[in-house]
Amino acid sequence: MSEHRLDRRSFNVAWAYALLGGAAISIGCGSDTPTGSSSNNSGSGSNSGGTASATDKEGQVSANHGHRALITAAQLTAGNDLEMNIQDTGTHGHTIRLTAAQIVSVRNGTRVSVETSTTQSHTHTVTFN
Hints:
Order of helices and strands: HEEHEEHEE
Shape: elongated
Number of domains: 1
Number of helices: 3
C-alpha cells in the first residue's frame, strides 16, 4: 500500500468538498411526500432506513418502539426551524418540532431534548447529543 499524506489545507479542502457534496445529495434526493405523511422529515425527505452519516445527528427516543429521529447534515447546516415525523417502522407517527436555535445547539454538540406530539395516548422524549 502506498502512503498518502495530506497537508492541513488539502485535508480541509477535501473535508469541505465531502461536506458540501453530502449536503447536495441530501437536498437533491428528498422525498416528494408531503409534510405530515408517514416517515417524512420536512427538511429533506424520508426519515427511515439507512444509517446516519458522520455528520447527521440521530436522536435517542425514550420508550422506543420503532421510531427514529434523524437530523440530516443539510438540515444542521441550514440551521432552520424543523418539524419531523419520527414514525419510521412504528405503527403510528409522532411529530417533533425544533427551533432554529435548537438545531444550532445540536449542530454544536449541545444536548437538546424535545417531547413528541401525543399519539396513541403517549409521548416520547427525543434527545440529541
